[in-house]
Write a structure and sequence with these properties.
The protein is of the alpha+beta class. It has 8 helices and 11 strands. The protein has helices at 16-35, 52-57, 59-69, 79-82, 108-113, 115-121, 217-228, 232-253, and strands spanning 43-44, 95-102, 105-106, 127-135, 140-144, 151-159, 167-171, 174-176, 183-186, 192-196, 202-210. The longest helix has 22 residues, at 232-253. The radius of gyration is 18 Å and the shape is globular.
Length: 255
């Protein structure tokens, strides 16, 4: 089954405008599938992207910045507290985020505390979203698919608990494991699930970047992703993050 054949995570729209947008996105996904420069596999070889070695070379400094965030685990926002639409796959307090970018919007307070990570993100062409994705021991994310195949996902392993066979991701039925310092690349438009069935915390740098496509589909894809940043859903996420950031940093700046 191809990624474009699978059900999106959101309910089918009922309004005429919603149906038109949904149909347009489905048409766009078919164009992207036909014009992807890197094909449509569930997972990608790291050699597919020339910039991966440079990104992996900086992983230890990024890991150190992620470690500095972990003592604040209980104060970090749950993913659904920022992006409310993910409540269909997670409702507990076991998937924490430290947001760095969201659909091109830079979370400057967080980026300022993580300069090495900020510098590394600038090496990734077409980066749109980035955050430290922190899974508590025992956390499981059920099978789901992303909303759009025009972006690809990178997980840079930062803290990977043992035993490795009990901490995994499965994309399109194919299981893989994270390794510290190594990039794992996949298409989240395929159905996928995650388990951390260990006693340790798993941390990756989670990055979405534009899928390389042939022109003019590359232009169309960039336009669609930019338009998503203007949607009510993303504006709500931005406000949620700003409220959290004000509380979190305000408490540390108060004498």
């Amino acid at each position: 089954m191809s990624a474009t054949d699978q059900i999106r995570p959101f309910n089918q729209p009922t309004s005429l405008l919603g149906k038109l947008i949904f149909a347009f996105l489905a048409w766009t996904e078919r164009r992207i599938a036909a014009n992807s420069k890197v094909g449509m596999p569930p997972y990608f070889e790291r050699s597919t992207f020339a910039w991966i070695p440079e990104v992996e070379a900086g992983w230890q400094a990024v890991r150190d910045e992620a470690r500095a965030v972990l003592p604040y685990f209980n104060e970090l926002p749950n993913f659904q507290d920022i992006s409310e639409e993910v409540a269909y796959i997670t409702r507990d307090d076991q998937w924490k985020t430290f947001m760095l970018m969201g659909y091109g919007l830079r979370m400057q307070d967080n980026l300022s505390t993580c300069p090495a990570t900020d510098a590394l993100l600038r090496k990734i062409p077409g980066v749109r979203t980035a955050f430290f994705s922190i899974l508590a021991p025992g956390k499981r994310i059920p099978e789901h698919r992303g909303p759009y195949n025009g972006v690809l996902r990178l997980h840079l392993g930062l803290i990977v608990p043992e035993p490795a066979e009990r901490c995994w991701i499965k994309v399109d039925g194919q299981q893989a494991h994270w390794r510290e310092g190594e990039a794992l690349l996949f298409d989240d438009a395929y159905r996928h699930e995650v388990h951390n069935d260990t006693d340790g915390v798993r941390v990756v740098l989670f990055v979405d970047f534009l899928r390389p496509c042939r022109w003019p589909v590359s232009w169309l894809n960039a336009l669609v992703v930019y338009a998503a940043s203007l949607s009510p859903m993303l504006r709500t996420a931005k406000r949620n993050h700003e409220r959290w950031s004000k509380r979190f940093y305000g408490a540390r700046r108060t004498p």
